[in-house]
Design goal:
The complex is a heterodimer of chains A (about 625) and B (about 300). Chain A is α+β, with helices and mostly antiparallel strands and about 625 residues long. Chain A contains eleven helices and 39 strands. Classes of the chains: A alpha+beta (about 625), B alpha/beta (about 300).
């Protein structure tokens, strides 16, 4: 029940007056009787015969109290909102993956569309109809239309998504409509139950569906061997589910998951003796459930494809240790007369030397370039070197360059070089295109450059003539430079539907091809030439990113796209649905007012009856 | 004589009635009440064989001729009874309903008149507190009756009434020579049953007349009421009390009154005491000629 004038409830204060009257009114009236003898005898009769006397004594007061309450309610203008088919409707259609669950050959989404169509048929006769699709994003499917045919047509063209519903965004769109007609009803067609849905009328489309699901699949390394763990769930019924595991294409012994209704079970393969793998996948065997999108799950091992680093140094100790600690990588140190390679690596480190040609398929670190190659350094790398400063004894302290760029923050994160000194360094006279990281006597000694994806880091001093390697931040600095220099094509091996995926290309990648093998058996392939590539996968499956580098080398990365969030969970019971709020100062589209039932008349009738009852009680007491 | 108490028309009707007293009473010589004793009236009662010392004039010679034995004729004895009336003069008889007192006085006067009509002696004792005052002594004859009854006009009903003490302390409660009538509402803590037993011990024929006012029978009140007993001496008297009266209480009162009267009836029945309960709105004639005739006290 709603109140048109809540201030009318102030009328309840009159109850105080009623109570005062009862308190202040004369307590007893004197009545002279011939003898009180029989009256005293009668007391035991009255006590014996009227057990509910206290209630009967107070009945008049209670009735009068009720009269005051009803009058106060009438003053407040009570009314009910009617749940009728009249009035403008805003329908939010949940287009999340779980709405694809089938029951009787029709999905929840189809059933919802059918009901929405029926609702539109009735509503559009007098009022307007809005449908908001809540998928990965929330969009208006139909906005304030008065054509049932149009609504049905748009609904028939609408497909469900595999992402999570963006209900907050859908509610925000609903608020836009409410700003025009604050009386519009809001309906949500979804598959979850809400304890408190506020002003939103929730239509639960879930039926008797059953879903066997793989909620999670992980691989962890224990004692040098991989242990695979799958979390299996069964919603809607208890089930014994056979789970198959394939590792690098080879089938392993299936396991049985015993799931209670709406319960989960964990399946572990811990004695496979697998020290290394590239991919693994699990799938539910022989399951015919209502929702097939979570019956498979793939896993790719990112450590199976480590970065390759070439470290050319006469004394690589300091660098090799720090680089090994920075991340998973294979470090190749050419020995003897073996010439340094200029291709096939993700990072090239040249300590005290310059490469014969500039590597183009990886980042390059130049550490203490030799003075005799100053001309080449200037010509090929854009670094103009002058004299060597220092005599090997005097200390020259570093200072941070103080940049504000993203690169500077990445490289200098947690690094404080002010207590670090060098006894000899090369002063640079030109370094166009480079950004200074660390200075020494106002001359840069650590510089970075990103030339179209080809990243270069220059150390203008010999690590062996500085105390830098013994400082605590040295591994941090190397790690920061490592992360700056080498970027994975895909950060993770697993993403959810609708989640943004950034594909970073190798420095000299000529072409990037993204091919996908979806859960329903279909495949797709797209090529990209501008990087980084931003993908928002909308389908489940295995995605393969293939890059063709300038050196004709082919680099392949893979990731898996799974269902988002808890879309596998059926029978969700949620506590609160945050509905749309009518914006302040909303206009009123008066031709589409919501139906209400004014209860003033009914209260008046009740008041009349109660007044008659009160009068009867008074009469009975007096006569 | 106070015309308000008893008028000539009423007296004329009383002329045709008489009081009936049980025959086991002895009384005094000279009355009109037949007893089970043999006397010298003209009304034949029985025969008895002649005994030495009997008056030979009473020998029935016809029987002698038939049986050759001497029988004498016996005649019914007629005695004068003493009709004693105890009148409750407490405040409860008048304060809330003056008709109640008037009614009681009219009944007392009527009974007294019936007594003197039958050449009986009558006396009216006024119970005030624990004392039974004699209104006008023992009356014989109409003139004395009218003189005595005129004192009822000035009678004040006030204070309380202890029936037990007043009757037991009465100097002349009587013997088996007549009828004792107690007129009261009997709404008292006093143990009047003891007084009745005392009178029965003295072989009196006892009759109780309970006079109630209409408001006693069917009280009209509701809500929060402080009942003030008419015999209460001060507002703090323990006989006063408060209660919230509802219909249920009124019903309970009626049931309590019915039980109270029933208790008196059962007591009276157990001791062969006549009992009549009347309300003051009921005509006195009805009491005398119907109710009392029904119990047999008035013929």
């Amino acid at each position: 029940m709603s109140l048109a004038l809540p201030l009318g409830l102030l009328g309840l204060l009159s109850i105080v007056g009623l109570v005062l009257i009862y308190i202040l009114k004369p307590k007893y009236q004197d009545k002279k009787v011939a003898s009180t003898y029989v009256w005293k005898l009668s007391l035991k009769y009255a006590k014996r015969k009227v057990p509910w006397q206290w209630l009967r004594n107070s009945l008049l007061f209670l009735i009068q109290l009720l009269i005051f309450v009803i009058i106060a309610l009438m003053m407040a203008g009570p009314f009910f909102y009617l749940s009728t088919t009249q009035g403008e409707k805003i329908v939010i259609l949940d287009a999340s993956a779980s709405m694809l669950a089938e029951d009787g050959g029709r999905t929840r989404f189809d059933r919802a569309k059918s009901e929405i169509g029926s609702l539109a048929d009735v509503t559009t006769q007098n009022d307007r109809f809005t449908v908001i699709l809540a998928g990965e994003d929330a969009t208006f499917l139909i906005r304030r239309s008065d054509s049932a045919g149009f609504v049905r047509q748009k609904l028939s063209e609408t497909e469900c998504t595999l992402s999570e519903p963006d209900l907050p965004a859908a509610m925000a769109l609903a608020e836009q409509v409410l700003s025009e007609n604050p009386n519009a009803e809001v309906h949500l067609f979804t598959d979850a139950e809400y304890e408190d849905s506020g002003r939103v009328t929730v239509h639960n489309m879930s039926g008797s569906e059953w879903n066997a699901a793989i909620l999670n699949f992980t691989a962890s390394r224990v004692n040098g061997q991989y242990v695979f763990t799958a979390q299996i769930a069964s919603y809607g019924r208890a089930a014994e589910i056979a789970v198959n595991l394939n590792v690098d294409g080879r089938a392993r012994l299936p396991k049985l998951a015993m799931c209670e209704q709406d319960g989960t079970a964990t399946v572990v393969w811990d004695s496979l003796n697998i020290a290394e793998y590239e991919s693994a996948d699990v799938h539910l065997q022989g399951i015919r459930d209502s929702f097939v999108y979570d019956n498979d799950y793939s896993l790719f091992n990112p450590s199976a494809d480590p970065f390759r680093i070439q470290l050319v140094s006469s004394n690589p100790g300091f660098l090799q240790g720090a680089l090994s600690a920075a991340g998973s990588c294979d470090i190749v140190v050419p020995e003897g007369e073996t010439p340094a390679s200029t291709s096939g690596f993700d990072l090239y480190v040249f300590d005290g030397t310059l490469p014969d040609e500039i590597p183009t398929d990886g980042a390059v670190w130049l550490i203490a370039p030799p003075q005799q190659d100053a001309a080449r350094l200037d010509a090929e790398w854009g670094i103009g070197m002058s004299v060597v400063r220092g005599n090997g004894k005097d200390r020259y302290y570093f200072s941070p360059a103080g940049g504000t760029s993203e690169i500077y923050r990445t490289v200098m994160r947690a690094v404080d070089p002010r207590t670090t000194f060098v006894t000899e360094y090369s002063r640079l006279i030109s370094y166009d295109g480079y950004e200074s990281m660390i200075l020494c006597e106002d001359s840069p000694v650590l510089l970075t450059r990103n030339d179209g994806g080809l990243k270069t880091v220059v150390f203008a001093f010999d690590l062996h003539k500085s105390d830098l390697p013994i400082h605590y931040y040295y591994p941090l600095l190397i790690s920061n430079l490592y992360r700056y220099s080498i970027v994975r094509t895909v950060e993770r091996a697993e993403y959810a539907v609708g989640e943004a995926v950034q594909l970073n290309a190798k420095p000299n990648a000529l072409q990037m091809t993204v091919s996908a093998s979806f859960a329903d058996g279909t495949e797709s392939e797209e090529q990209y030439s501008e990087y980084p590539v931003l993908l928002t996968p909308e389908r489940l499956g295995e995605y393969t990113v293939t890059q063709t580098l300038g050196s004709a080398r082919t680099v392949t990365d893979r990731f898996y796209v799974r269902l988002a969030g808890d879309e596998s969970v059926f029978g969700k019971k949620l506590a609160l649905l945050t509905g749309p709020v009518t914006p302040p100062g909303a206009g009123t589209d008066t031709n589409v007012n919501r139906d209400t039932l004014d209860v003033f008349v009914y209260l008046g009738a009740a008041l009349l009856v109660i007044v008659c009852v009160e009068w009867g009680l008074q009469y009975r007491e007096q006569f | 004589m106070g015309a308000g108490i008893i008028d000539d028309n009423f007296l004329n009707r009383l002329e045709r009635a008489s009081l009936y007293v049980r025959k086991n009473m002895q009384g005094f010589f000279g009355g009109n009440h037949q007893t089970r004793f043999y006397g010298s009236t003209v009304e034949f009662a029985d025969y008895r064989e002649y005994m030495l010392g009997d008056d030979i004039r009473r020998i029935d010679w016809n029987l002698f001729s038939r049986f050759e034995r001497y029988f004498i004729r016996l005649f019914v004895d007629e005695r004068q009874m003493h009709i004693q009336t105890f009148l409750d003069c407490s405040a409860s008889m008048q304060k809330t309903d003056p008709d109640k007192a008037l009614y009681a006085m009219r009944v007392a006067a009527a009974l007294g008149y019936l007594a003197v009509l039958n050449m009986d002696r009558t006396s009216i004792r006024l119970i005030k507190g624990c004392v039974a005052e004699d209104l006008c002594g023992t009356i014989t004859g109409k003139n004395a009756f009218f003189r005595g009854i005129s004192k009822l006009d000035d009678l004040q009903f006030k204070g309380d009434c202890d029936l037990e003490s007043a009757i037991i302390r009465c100097p002349n409660p009587g013997t088996n020579n007549g009828l004792t009538v107690i007129i009261s509402d009997f709404m008292t803590e006093s143990n009047w049953k003891k007084a009745v037993d005392y009178l029965l011990f003295h072989k009196r024929q006892v009759m109780l007349i309970q006079v109630l006012s209409p408001s006693d029978v069917d009280p009209i009140c509701n809500g929060r009421v402080r009942f003030v007993d008419s015999e209460a001496e001060n507002p703090m008297d323990e006989r006063n009390f408060k209660m919230k009266v509802t219909r249920a209480h009124l019903q309970a009162y009626r049931e309590a009154l019915a039980d109270f009267i029933g208790d008196i009836k059962r007591f009276c029945a157990s001791r062969e005491v006549d009992f009549i309960s009347v309300t003051s709105d009921e005509p006195v004639e009805k009491l005398l000629f119907e109710r009392m005739s029904k119990v047999g006290t008035v013929k």
